[in-house]
Task: structure prediction
Amino acid sequence: MRGAVLYAPGDVRVEDRDDPRIIEPTDAILRLSATCVCGSDLWPYRGLDAVQDPFPMGHEYAGIVEEVGSQVTTITPGQFVVGSFFASDNTCPICQAGYQSSCINRVGVGENGAQAESLRVPLADGTLVATPDLPSDDLVPSLLAASDVLGTGWFGAVAAEAGPGKTVAVVGDGAVGLLAVLAASQLGAERIIAMSRHEPRQRLAVEFGATDIVTERGDDGVARIKELTSGLGAHSVVEAVGTQESMLQAIRSTRPGGHVGYVGVAHGVELPGTELFFSHVHLHGGPAPVRRFLPELIDLIWNRRIDPGKVFDLELPLDQAAEGYRAMDERRAIKVLLRP
Ligand SMILES: [Zn+2]
Result:
């Protein structure tokens, strides 16, 4: 099969890789209908995460089950399924509490490389959620979005306790930030402030339900949020970048008693204890337990109540993955869908 492999910063190649096969009796093999490039793939691509050996890339996937192991009971060949970047048993106490991305038996699906024609997914029964039927082609991008960016933006909004009567601010205008706007809107937030200085992203944020756009960042961004909230700060702030600046911007934009949902993968973030102590904000985040939300998200997409697939503004054949990485790295594209 064909699959994308990162050789060194800036060097992604699509090459022939071994077809995945069942290793554990709980595995499933999927033929992927669509996959994509994640903002977090840009960290190793930019050399900010170390690249050791050539590494298969991609952790977002949706497709048709081709084969299942002998212990798989609920997932069957022929089904269209969506799963998360962490495989989980969905039965342990941590999964039962809704934190499948910290499952005691979790396995990273990304190690197998989802930017490929086929993918082995461990713990298939606990990880994969099937759609009611085979989806029409126009639903595939939105179902793929549920695999990570939608689920992650959704968790950010839930962790920030977005809901009726709340003012929600979103730091970060990547696909996750934009879908956190959509999530806050679905959760009934009264006012949603998107922080973005890029016109196409601002437009999509408004389409997803943003009521205000703030172009300032850092301390100026905090001041602007305060201005918009009678000097108090937002009730709920979603942090969807993962840098020191964005994390402090999120905490400082939150009113005392408010909540920060942080879902940007942290890189070099160190929190000042004294400031945190006196801020009186709740912090909750981490790798999103996407599996918790998948049944609800698939239902919303299936019934065409939400269209998160709009974050894909560039679609390429898998063989052109390198161009997809370049387009996202240079911010020419919000998110790139790859067709195997
Ligand atoms: Zn578990």
About this structure: The two ends are 10 Å apart (CA to CA).
